Amino acid sequence: MRATYAKIHLNNFRSNLNVIRSKINKESKFCVAVKADAYGHGALECSKVAEECGVDFLAVACADEGIQLREGGIKLPILVLSLVCPEEMELLIEHRLTPLVFDEEYISCLAAKCRKMNVRDFPVHLAVDTGMGRIGCRAEDAGTVAKFIEKTGVLFFEGMCTHFSVADSLKKEDEEYTQRQFENFNAAVAAVKNAGVNPGIRHAANSALTLSDSGTHLDMCRCGIIAYGYYPGDFTKEYFEKKGSPVELKPVMEMVSKVAAIREFDKDRCVSYGNLWKTAEKTRIAVVPAGYADGILRNFNRDGKGLYVSIGGKPYPVRGRICMDQMMVEIGSDESVKRWDDVVIFGPEESGAFFSAQEIADMTGTISYEITCGVSKSRVPKVFFDE
Ligand SMILES: *Cc1c(COP(=O)(O)O)cnc(C)c1O
To answer: How far, in Å, CA of 231 to CA of 12, rounded?
Structure first.
């Protein structure tokens, strides 16, 4: 196998699922978002663990992701959170994937496919746009759309949902916005009931609200990032401790590579593209075969305040620009570092890493989601650990 791989700590994933389950209201279901290959962690393996742990629903982004899970033997209901095009609808129906719907043209198209395939009672969930500005009908139209779904005669109104845009913010105006979105959703639920349709499974809470506001759990919580071990947005481990409801999440992904060569350089030798870094004295450089095409992005190492990797539990700085396929790490005169030693780039604390995906995200102005999703699926093999 290649020197560079992602170690997936499934035991940490399981531990996170159990922690989250303990935070969700007893009567509410638990949906885990395994879209984008489980945020880069391996959708099928994570889904199998989720199934074992008694999760109620999974969520993916597109039909292909759902089909891969069905082909891998996953039996749980699977929500498809984005819209699929008409050509994918038959596959969606055939694999019992549950779409979000919200407008009459799309609903008619889906119903026609069901009729063609002789499928009855095909479950759908109504998406309501309460302020995210993405998919969903307006709350005031929810009753009409619900009736339209029932009138198709082949679709079953199984549930309804909305999605929050600033639920992970602690700013007062954002908290108020979230509150208004929630009220708006409740109005949509009332409109559906008034139209004589059972609203079924009502779900709204994402990771942030699952941990921070049990009043929004309704009939199901949809969690992604916390299952992979990162706190959402403004929320931190310390925040929950202070509030008296501690949450112990463990990062699931560890990025590992190896020392592929050790080079000796005299003073004033340039390292990597752009000649941005020069040796200040005679030193030694370890060459590590991992780069931005693997997901170790160039901006992980920006002029001096960049990444430290862990070799044998000790920190060593990345020097110069990260290349497409390789990066250079200064080990100096440290004789303890040997060729083919493991290099931990990021990961949970127990891996010896000095950065988690969260800390790299904070350092580079993005979110942990983008760091783990950015690990190349085609080039970085995943190795699953479950001790
Ligand atoms: C991705 C997604 C989620 C999960 O979001 P997290 O912040 O990772 O918990 C929930 N609902 C919808 C509609 C999503 O697209």
So the answer is: 14
User: How many angstroms is it from 236 CA to the middle of ligand 1?
Assistant: 18
pLDDT tens for each residue of 163-215: 999 999 999 999 999 999 999 999 999 999 999 999 999 999 999 999 999 99
Are 151 and 139 spatial neighbours (Cβ–Cβ below 8 Å)?
A: no
Instruction: Tally the C-alpha atoms within 13 A of residue 321's C-alpha that lie toward its C-beta.
Output: 10
Q: How many CA atoms lie within 13 A of 12 on its CB side?
A: 22
In this predicted model, what pLDDT tens digit does every residue of 217-259 receive, in sequence order? 999 999 999 999 999 999 999 999 999 999 999 999 999 999 9
pTM of the model: 0.97
Q: Which residues line ligand 1 (CB under 6 A)?
A: 33, 35, 81, 163, 206-207, 222-225, 232
Q: How far apart are CA 225 and CA 231, in angstroms?
A: 7
Task: Give the three-state DSSP class for 195.
Answer: coil
Is 35 an annotated catalytic residue?
Answer: yes
Q: Would the pLDDT of 303 be above 70?
A: no
